[in-house]
């Protein structure tokens, strides 16, 4: 008969049951499932048993290959619930105090993970890790594996774990120990530990990642330079077009408009001359007894006056001077 705890772990229900898979690994972290007896003491909707765990993983179209239990007791659930689903179960007793000083636990954890990876034929099977809340001890050992066996930096490992789990490692001593472990790995003259996925040494795997980042950065910089040169080319073509327009008296459309205006003005002048000749022959206009006759204003003169008013309005609005605009409004109102 399996002995069970009678008390729910402190603050256990405040943590999310299951995190996401850590990128570029097969690790998935969760808090410890509880047996039915303990779940009866938890508010409805917050239960988390082995059945809940397996269902949540299956709903993501994922599957567990192994579960590594890091709690310091075996009373939270029955391991046979895991093994009965053809999932491997590994138990490592990790005490809450003095944990980071136990290098033997770190070595046992790393060996267990390496052993599973080497013998597993299913490369998609996930490695489930849990302690009581799935944060501190789980985070420390997973990050140590990423640092010691995969050559990650401590910053990369901690950030990846916390983002995937959804909770940060709460103990500062664990964070300090991880940075110290990463520094010791960097100071080692040789790296005999192999990358579990590629079979390369840590140095080779790290150099490959750096080359990939440089290549990605180079491609991005090349695209930026290409876009910049394209913009310069467009601006140069625009400047060339403006220069041609200045040297040739404007664009063809502008030249056509100017020719139309000149033709219209010449036509207006012709109409004025004809009107004057008619006035002289008919006695309308001209002078009578020393006074100028009051002849009607021609259509050409009206168009020319209107054009001048519009040009004046445009120039005033372009300058944007308030007093000139007000004067123009008064002048137009007086008309």
UniProtKB/TrEMBL annotation:
<feature type="domain" description="Tyrosine-protein phosphatase">
    <location>
        <begin position="32"/>
        <end position="191"/>
    </location>
</feature>
<keyword id="KW-0904">Protein phosphatase</keyword>
<dbReference type="InterPro" id="IPR020422">
    <property type="entry name" value="TYR_PHOSPHATASE_DUAL_dom"/>
</dbReference>
<dbReference type="GO" id="GO:0004721">
    <property type="term" value="F:phosphoprotein phosphatase activity"/>
</dbReference>
<dbReference type="InterPro" id="IPR029021">
    <property type="entry name" value="Prot-tyrosine_phosphatase-like"/>
</dbReference>
<protein>
    <recommendedName>
        <fullName>Tyrosine specific protein phosphatases domain-containing protein</fullName>
    </recommendedName>
</protein>
<keyword id="KW-0378">Hydrolase</keyword>
<feature type="region of interest" description="Disordered">
    <location>
        <begin position="185"/>
        <end position="223"/>
    </location>
</feature>
<feature type="region of interest" description="Disordered">
    <location>
        <begin position="246"/>
        <end position="307"/>
    </location>
</feature>
<dbReference type="InterPro" id="IPR000340">
    <property type="entry name" value="Dual-sp_phosphatase_cat-dom"/>
</dbReference>
<feature type="compositionally biased region" description="Basic and acidic residues">
    <location>
        <begin position="185"/>
        <end position="194"/>
    </location>
</feature>
<feature type="domain" description="Tyrosine specific protein phosphatases">
    <location>
        <begin position="107"/>
        <end position="165"/>
    </location>
</feature>
<feature type="compositionally biased region" description="Acidic residues">
    <location>
        <begin position="263"/>
        <end position="279"/>
    </location>
</feature>
<dbReference type="GO" id="GO:0004651">
    <property type="term" value="F:polynucleotide 5'-phosphatase activity"/>
</dbReference>
<dbReference type="InterPro" id="IPR016130">
    <property type="entry name" value="Tyr_Pase_AS"/>
</dbReference>
<dbReference type="InterPro" id="IPR051029">
    <property type="entry name" value="mRNA_Capping_Enz/RNA_Phosphat"/>
</dbReference>
<dbReference type="InterPro" id="IPR000387">
    <property type="entry name" value="Tyr_Pase_dom"/>
</dbReference>
<dbReference type="Pfam" id="PF00782">
    <property type="entry name" value="DSPc"/>
</dbReference>
